[in-house]
Amino acid sequence: MRVERKDLLGIENLTRNEIEIILDTAETMKEISERAIRKVPYLRGKTVVNLFFEPSTRTLASFALAEKRLSADSFNLSGSSSSALKGETLLDTVRNLEAMKIDFVVIRHAMSGAAYFIAERLEASVINAGDGTHEHPTQALLDLLSLKERLGNIKDKKVLIVGDILHSRVARSNIWAFKKMGAKVSLCGPPTLMPYKIENMGVEVSYNLDEAIQDMDVIYVLRIQKERQRGGLLPSLREYIELYGITLERFENAKDDVVIMHPGPINRGIEIDPRVADGTNSIILDQVTNGVAVRMAILYLLSGGKSGEVSEA
Asked: Could you tell me the end-to-end alpha-carbon distance of the chain, in angstroms, rounded to an integer?
């Protein structure tokens, strides 16, 4: 089975079948990463540009590793090292890159919709690595793979996303992803960090974490995104920890087998206690591992690869 798309821009417009193809392919790609020689020739001769206008560790590193393991030629270009500092527009930047005969652009940008904007104007495939507060589709896909490994199936599972929902592109992608796979999604966070009419996405919203945490199968903890916040949205970090932090005491009131997730980077001691983040219920490092496999799968499928043929390598 193939994914008949030029680009991967968001979870909202993916079908459940496409998600399952990506996850199945990622499972095989993960096996490649466990070999003694972690390299296959699927993208030999292809060129990938990682164009990151925002800081990144996990996403950029995992895309770079994915590209190398698929034998692609790739290079990283940051906003601080591009001609954007000289006034060049985003469109001119990517058109100049495409003139160098590239095949993929992996873009992270502070502007919501940036990936869609360039995808409509380029022949190269575009992969959204996070656009403003809109979506982060590859994060949602690696989260689905991580939950599939831990739970087997997330249909009818209860998932609670906690924290700064307002500024979180991860939250939006995960709401779409979890719901498409049959999970029941709830949100909890400060009223000032909850988007207006977010209930229209088919989620339940609460503001009392001690009540919301009970009977949940998955608790997905978000980072407080201080770099995107306007002033006055939070009285203090101490109050946030008291009301919405996943403290050890609060965690002990959750189900014994609850799964703890976090997209990173973690503000230890603020949104989550280190003992919870590092405990046996946590699959945070599994998420990081699966990021490489998922991004390998996406690059392979967008290049015309077929799910089910990977194992023949």
From this structure: 17
The set of long-range contacts for 248-256, using a CB threshold of 8 Å and a minimum separation of 24, is 248/273, 248/275, 248/276, 250/209, 250/210, 250/213, 251/276, 253/210, 253/213, 253/214, 254/213, 254/214, 254/216, 254/219, 255/214, 255/215, 255/216, 255/217
Q: pLDDT digits over 25-56, tens only?
A: 999 999 999 999 999 999 999 999 999 999 89
Q: What is the model's pLDDT at position 237?
A: 86
Tokens of 216: 């949940």
- Cα–Cα distance, 222 to 244 (Å, whole number): 10
Per residue in 244-270, pLDDT (tens digit) is 999 999 999 999 999 999 999 999 999
CB proximity list for 74: less than 8 A, separation 6 or greater: 47, 48, 49, 50, 64, 67, 68
Angle between helices 284-302 and 58-69 (to 10 degrees): 50
Exposed e or buried b for every residue in 131-169, given b needs 16+ CB within 10 A? bbbbbbbbbbbbbbbbbbebbeebeebbbbbbbbbbbbb
pLDDT digits (tens, 9 = 90+) for 110-164: 999 999 999 999 999 999 999 999 999 999 999 999 999 999 999 999 999 999 9
- Write the Ramachandran bin of 36: left for phi over 0, alpha for psi from -120 to 50, otherwise beta: alpha
Quote the mean pLDDT of the chain.
93
Amino acid identity of residue 238, one-letter, is: R
